[in-house]
């Protein structure tokens, strides 16, 4: 029993470390690619918008692809009922659509682009 509990804790800890490494990877790339200009992150971000955009879309795609597996694993570990697991599996499309909406509105600034296009069409 103690070994099984320790194994679960180790698995959770390793998943947390992996998530932190995924989140820190862009920062490590910055520090390596621009060692002299690490303080000027705003300029670096503006010069590498394509990299960050691709990174965000890859994360959204990963959520879409791994959602059923993660929900099944999490539901089984938490002793969820089959109905609850099925409910959260059905929420995948809604969550992905919200992530895409946030990406388009906040990150791609589609509202500002649309208003500028409309202003250009008006006399």
Word description of this protein:
This protein is 85% helix and 0% strand. It folds into two domains: 1-47; 48-123, no CATH class. It has six helices and no strands. It has helices at 2-33, 41-47, 49-77, 82-90, 92-107, 110-121. The chain is mainly alpha-helical and 123 residues long. The protein starts with a helix and ends with a helix. Helix 3 runs antiparallel to helix 4 and helix 3 (49-77) packs antiparallel against helix 5.
Q: Please indicate the count of domains.
A: 2
Structural class: mainly alpha
Q: Write down the oligomeric state.
A: single chain
Largest sheet, strands/sense/barrel: none
Structural key phrases:
mainly alpha, 123 residues, single chain, 0% strand
TL;DR of this structure?
The protein is mostly helical and 123 residues long.
């Amino acid at each position: 029993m103690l070994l099984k509990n320790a194994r679960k804790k180790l698995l959770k800890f390793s998943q947390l470390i992996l998530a932190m490494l995924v989140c820190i990877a862009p920062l490590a790339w910055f520090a390596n690619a621009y060692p002299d200009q690490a303080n000027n992150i705003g300029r670096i971000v503006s010069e590498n918008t394509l990299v960050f955009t691709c990174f965000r879309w890859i994360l959204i795609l990963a959520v879409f692809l791994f959602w059923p597996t993660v929900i099944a694993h999490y539901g089984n570990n938490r002793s969820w009922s089959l109905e609850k697991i099925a409910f959260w599996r059905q929420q995948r499309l809604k969550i992905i659509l919200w992530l895409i909406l946030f990406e388009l509105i906040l990150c791609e600034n589609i509202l500002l682009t649309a208003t500028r296009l409309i202003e250009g069409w008006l006399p």
